[in-house]
Amino acid sequence: WLKFEFFGVAMAAPRPPLRVQSTGGNVSGLATRVQRTTVFDLDPKLEEVRDRIVARVSRYEKWLTDIASSESGMEVFAEGWNTFGFHRGPDGSLVFREWLPAARQVFLIGDFNGWNHGTHPLVKETLGRWKIRFLGGAEPGHASRVRVRIETPAGEWVERVPVWSRAVAPDAAGAPAGVHWWPPFPYDWRHSRPARPHNLRFYEVHVGSAADIGIGSFARFRESVLPRVLQLGYNAIILAGVVEHCEYASGGRDVTALFAPSSKLGNPEELKELIDVAHSMGIIVVMDVVHTQVSPASSLANTDGAFAYTHPDRSAGCALDHSRWEVLRLLLSNLKYFMEAFRVDGFRFKDGTAMLYVDKGAAAASGTYSDYFGPQFDEAGGLYLMLANELVNRLHPGGAVTIIEETTGVPTLCRPVQEGGFGGFLRMDNRAASLWTDHLTHVRDEGWSIGHVAFQLMAKRPREKRVTFVEEMGTTTPLVNLLLGDQQSWKLTTASSVVCDRAVALHKLLRLATFGLAGEAYLTTAGVEYGDPVPLNLSLEGPRRGWNVAADADPRQSCLQMFDTALMHADERFGILASEHEHCALADQSNMVLAFERGESLFVCNFHPTETAAGVAVECGRTAEPLVLALHTDERRFGGAGRLRELETYVPTAGVIHVTLPPRSGLVLVPHDSLESGIRVTVEAADAAAMRWPDLNQLRLDIVEANGAPDCRRVPLRGDGLVELSLSSATFFVRGPGEWQLHPTGAVGQPFRVHFPGDYELTCVGVLQPAPRQLQVEVRRKNVHPDLMVEVTHGIANPSHTGSGTADVGGSSGRHASNHDRIRFNPFESNASEREDVVPDAVEHNIAGTSTQAPEEEESGDGTGGGQVFEMRAAVSSYSALSTVSHATAEQRNLRRHKTGRSDEHLGKHTDVPIVSVTSEVHPFSKSGGLALVASSYAVEFPRRNHLFVCVSPMYDDVPDAHYIGSTSIWLAGSHHEVAYFHQFVEEEDGQGADYIFVAHGCYRRPGGLYHNAKLGVEYEDNLFRFALLSLAALEVPLVLRPRGLYLGEKILFIANDWQSALVPVYMAYKYRQPNPSKPKGTYTDARCLYVTHNMGYQGQYPESRFPIGPFLGLPEAAHGHLRFHDCINLAKGAIITSDRVITVSPTYAQEIQTLHGGFGLDGFLRAKGDQLRLAGILNGIDDGWDPMTDPHLVRNYDVHSVEQGKAECKAALQKSLGLDVEANTLLLGFVGRLAWQKGIDLLEAAAPWLLDSRGKWPVQLIMMGHGDREYTEFLQWAEATYSGQVCGYAGFSPIVEHHMIAGCDVLLMPSRYEPCGLPQMYALQYGTLPVVHATGGLRDSVRDGETGFHFAPFEVEGFKHALYRAVERYNIDKDAWREMQVAAMTCDFYWPRAIDEYERHIDYTFEGQPAIHVEPLPAKPVSTRLRKRPKEGSAVPRLSPAEKTGDQKTANAAPEPRPGVSTKPELQPTTAFDVSNGHQV
User: Fold this and answer.
1) How would you class 704 by CB atoms within 10 Å of its CB: exposed for 0-12, middle for 13-18, buried for 19 or more?
2) Is the CA virtual torsion 725, 730, 735, 741 positive or negative?
3) pLDDT tens profile 397-408
4) Cα Rg of the chain, angstroms
5) Residue pair 833/395 in contact by the 8 Å Cβ criterion
6) N or C: which end of the chain has fewer CB within 10 A?
7) Residues 6+ apart with CB under 8 A from 1103
8) Cis ω on the peptide bond leading into residue 261 (within 30° of 0)?
9) pLDDT value of residue 374
10) Are 914 and 950 in contact (CB under 8 A)?
């Protein structure tokens, strides 16, 4: 690489990222687009090989086209394990198949037949395939060992391990044999894949080195190594030597079985558990794959005597022939198998150079571009690499990692295929390791060229990401040995020496420079972090490497390891690797000083062996603010001399700072506001309670070292889980009463360490992690008023574990469903840009009588949640799971009116009344379920009725376009709390829009879900406080804020959504409406409140013994009875009694909740509300996106006049794509929803044999899609395997498939036990798909029995069968009646305007009546002519505008006029606090 000329060396500011459109499954014209791609602009020298690049892409396009036409697409092509090896056939029989094109005879032998050579012959099929089907008698059971016995063309008999073996084990004689791995109880996955971090820090390990003696195992690695990796601060691991290989010392390169985890390390289920545990820690797993060659001992080397898989003219090297169809199938299937069966997150392609070059890169080493793509370039290998990268990215879009080990520097290796590149994500860049090896071996320390060092570290291919390292795995001379020279005294010498001091100093300095400057990702080989001088030994005897750094380690090694951890934590805090900005600020040869910027951090390195760099001037134009010393290699805790002052501040002068640096040392400077003056450690109280910790007040931090010096202080932990230390670094134990102590993960008995000031989160499993800079600094810069600092002290988010933002994955669920827990590949997800990961549905958790919100519908898997913010606000097109967001245009609304016959809308009498909707979540700013989407629909529909609409919701994470608008102080839980408000106006396309007010307070910022701790699956302990604060803050909005200068007044309609905002009507009645001397009539006497409940099963219950109503909530005694329910506070009860009207999501559900069964204990209060005519049910609406006339996902759009032809085409496409028999006259049934008890899956399971076995007169087909409980997932698997061609079961969710099913199915099944509203049945009716439903809730209201669908009741199997029989009979006997039902269904109106009409009617009823809680005003006082007394000092005095003083109400309500020289920021109104003693406002 030293000879290469690199363009775009990253010493200038980077260009903005390219916008590349993924081709997905459509590759037409790809080569033409490559002709115009900017890759030739990025590197002009590529022009000389443009024709070769375009020709290669044309051939890649041809390969994709051939695969699509012959194999139904690459994803299906890459499922070879379902065709070859052992698998179950359509009839459930066991089938074994092998590709042996040159074989003359083939037999299967093994344990099952006593290794008899002639009893089980394979039958030859076409295309060189051989097959045997076990129809009866003995068949290989689980863990049965087998081999294939082959007669070669030469007449020889050979025995081979089956190529597609999923496990390998020796037979009685010790010879390797394939294993039929089909465990009766496969591993039960517990955790979903973590998001791919932006700053990847890889820990490269060989699983076998996890033992001090002998070979390690998957289990040993899981127990001892993974906690260590997490404690060190790495967020990704690269596993070497995972698949079966014959020579253990090869490190996994001599592969013998591609699909079998190494038998030396454990079985496949143990590897799955290892990966699952890594994912639970937020660690992504990348696996080494060797797809260039195989071991000569492998069956692949010469399977059938004719080199079926290997290259004919390179057979001596056993190089795989990537030009062969079955080789492509094998290798691509290998990738997909490990991604789906083992859930690995990506791959490192070993020996990529040998894959791309016949001569292994010898010619390309010249560095000329013609040689890169010259005669020695292996085009088939390059095309395979393109296919492999494309496949991996399709399988795990946005989260896959592919690393290519390539040493020649071939251009475009990590550029997208659409630009003519090979599609890799990261390039293994050995430049830094080679540079340090060369200099330490051949150059004296004082002779190093700083300019050369800077150039070599920064030079890179334009826009190609690199993973860099200082030492490679398998090197014979570790870096520390190069530093020690001839003295092998690292382990033996404990006293200081010149050689050892040099080694320690340079080891840290080289890592610091490499980490900061040389790549976009960083890799550490096990042992490098602490300077192990012993090379990695993969023999069965001899010293081990990588895991024995414990208490007996050399002190110098402990210091090096501590520095490595501090470096990883610095990246987590300051986002070093993720930053695109890098700039060489200084390369001073005279002082041997190198300075460079990376993001907002400034690195300064002094490479001089003896001289201190005194007062060196360093430019820092990017950071004009003061800089603070965050980390330096000379700290005592890192084995240095401590010659720099901790937290020293550098103030730039004219963009220059002066730095003094000891020899062989480096430092990192960061902006001053990114480090706090001290350390704050937070323990999540809810986690502690769930883990049965002692009370937080009884815990303490025993400090053993402070600022690098010994200490012996004991600092108690506060009751809120926070401790603050006035230190820059500390080492401490966490202890409690008696012998109680918290140990760091994987380091029992060891202390915790913090490396620089700031916020840290201490989890209850022993992980101490720094708060990322995004939350700690940028929040305060972007979203906080200069006079208001919002302190985040609870639950700091960790991007490496949860991805960006605080997306609420799973609502209140503690379970995680697999992203790829699917039975069959979904053909509608061929475009990677359209695929979305599956996330679990929410389930109820009840902690100490506490009910949390569970969404009514499936949740979104698009990553949206508390932290995800869309660039464009849009109307919601669906609030089923994974719904997309789209605007409803005027054309669509007109089409809707024409279709439904709606010519006008209900003209409400109170459209001049502002509406304030209080909700705990609102899409797209936060989301865990259907509530967020309903709240979002309110914000679209109510403004269209001319309401001034304000949505108030917590600020769970930054909202980029929201700006600070004001603040107020609220009394709650015994003290005052300052909350800030942020405002954003979202305008629709017709000029209407909604005002969003986000309430900012530290209690809302959590790393897990909106309502619960995702890691532990428990509700946040302070939820009552969080949502009581939301209710009070929302009631203050009209009083203290002027959004867009508009005065809302006190005649307002509040909409309180679900239990989280249930205190809004309670506070309104017993706080605001209460008269007081300053306001005899009270506040909000003309306002009203609707309480909207989506599911009465979730009520918000909290023990009153822990949360006394008066002291905690600040409510007077009169309100206590409304909230008290069986020794608990019941928020829903309080809202039912005090709200002016209760609305639920369907008329029938409004009746059901008044029964003992449906009211969940509150039925009596609901009946009383109904008797007052203050209870109603309004069926929720669906958005205009669900329309067969405009649906972009359908193969053909249709309307009520063309429904027969349109549905026929959609049905045929659906049957073909899902592998069903394409039969136009067969009734096609569909189910889509959560696989949960509430959805009645057990009823469907009980009726399935009766329904599906009737293949005679009226056959049916069934498609089932959903995710949820394991027992129901197994039912889907059983049904598909038992009724092949008749049933398709998909354990997952895809919004595209949902649209196809709604259009293509004839009948939709919804046998729910209870369904407050339900949406899929309304979608189905619009598409002419007739539902079979249990007559409950919204299902009964939306489906008319015998007219638009079929009911059954009560909830029992026989009734369900009868409804199914009616549907089957009607479809097969009376086609005309069926068409009439379809027409009636498609003319139903379920769109949102219909629902808003009902809301407007009930708003009118509400304002025309009296409040539910009537309050008498105070008697009027006689007017006094005496002068008022001067207010006492410190009392609140209302600020009156001139208009208010004169009584001009119209002028008073107008926006304030801007004054010259004064900011137009709205003036804050007097804040409101509450006095518990008298229950009045102050």
Assistant:
1) middle
2) positive
3) 888 999 999 888
4) 34
5) no
6) C
7) 848, 849, 1127, 1128, 1129
8) no
9) 86
10) yes
